[in-house]
Amino acid sequence: MADQDVKLADLFERLVDEGGDLLQAEVRIAEAKIARRLQLARLPLGLFSASAALAFVALMGLATAFVVLLGPLVGFLLAVVIVTLATAAASWLLFVEARKRLEVVIEAPSLLLRSRSEK
């Protein structure tokens, strides 16, 4: 009976060791997959960044056109203020909408929620 207990203990110890090795191998595989996906995403993310920069330039040109259009009607200083406030309002609305949609996707940690509710 004692011999069986020793064999059982050895088997259990081997199972724990091999389970740990398997877990480490799974972590390495997951890290490799993530690294590969990040590597593949570099070019598309660079293209998105360039697209966003060009869109920003286009929006600045459009804002300038609105200022030039409104300038003779209300004065150039007031035209700049009007266009700036309109674009700031649009930016704020987009920000609020994006934040609402992200809050649905990304849950805040429960610890953070508890500390906010206690205040």
From TrEMBL:
Keywords, sorted A to Z: Membrane, Transmembrane, Transmembrane helix
Membrane-spanning ranges: 45-70, 76-96
Protein name: Putative oligopeptide transporter (OPT) family protein
